[in-house]
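ESCALATION

Customer reports they have been waiting on this structure for their group meeting. Please prioritize. Original submission:
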Amino acid sequence: MKTYLRKHLQKHAIYQSARQEFSENGNDLILLDANENPFDWPYNRYPDPLQLKLRKAISAWRNVPPSQIYLGNGSDEIINQLVLGFCEPKEEKILICPPTFGMYKVAAELFQVPLYQVPLTPQFQLDVPTILQSIKSDMKLFFLPTPNNPTGNRFKTEDIQKIAAAFPGIVVVDEAYAEFSPEASALSWQSEYPNIVVLQTFSKAQGMAGARLGMAFGSENIIDGLLKVKAPYNLNSLTLEAALDQVENQQGRVREMVALLTKERKRVINALESLPYVESIFPSDANFFMLRVDDSRLRYNQLIENNIVVRQASHYLGCENCLRISVGAPSENDKLLQVMNNLK
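Update from on-call: job pushed to the front of the queue and completed.
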């Protein structure tokens, strides 16, 4: 199997924390190895560094072996670790397709990895011919969010697969908003493309943004590479407990929330389409949508004056005079529509 890990890390041993060796031995051990406070106090012990219980629950939930699951302190940490672990600074490159999620560029700059960009088409789809022509042997990561942020649309499955088949490195399919889209997750065809890593998160549909938990699904050699660059205890016990309950007990409620937000997305978009200052609203498969207005700065400030905060998207390539609006609760959406209907 192809090894993508940076050369000097291939022989790097994973740091063995004090608790790692005995994380599965139960609670009958006398633990004198980690310099913890020994008294019975909430969270006096370090969390499981490999998150084995949660990974097994996610394995059953997502139908992926535990050995092919990696958990991070939000997807942002995983993005950083992918760059740290697999890209030689100043030598290998990262490919992105703007407009896209801003953290990919931040991570590239942080670790001094050159960034190559192929813009999306005017319809915000992948420019497959240009991407294929631009692929070079020194490209190590291709970050591809679908549904895309900030535009909200999904990319075509056949386009992603065609690129994955040609790309020499790892194709990172970032599915932060996948629950809001009717299309199948890349997990369903990941085994056919072993260079694909799928990112998912607890921050959006799962409603746990404050817990900071991201998931990466990939081949064992890629997951092993991520384990080599992780901090010993990168997830805390509170997050692990909350996430385990979320996976095992709350998915019915999550499906209800997703259905309501999807319905609300359609309602809000339909109501805004006829406003005279709204020039276009772009298709969305996420829990947000992007629209182009006559003057995004003016409209943004008018909404702020009415205590409504949306996202300026005009700084993204091809998104001039655009605003990104998250779908709120029904009462919040009612207020948004009331205010926007009265803007002059």
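Sent to customer with the following note: The longest strand covers residues 139-145.
Escalation resolved.
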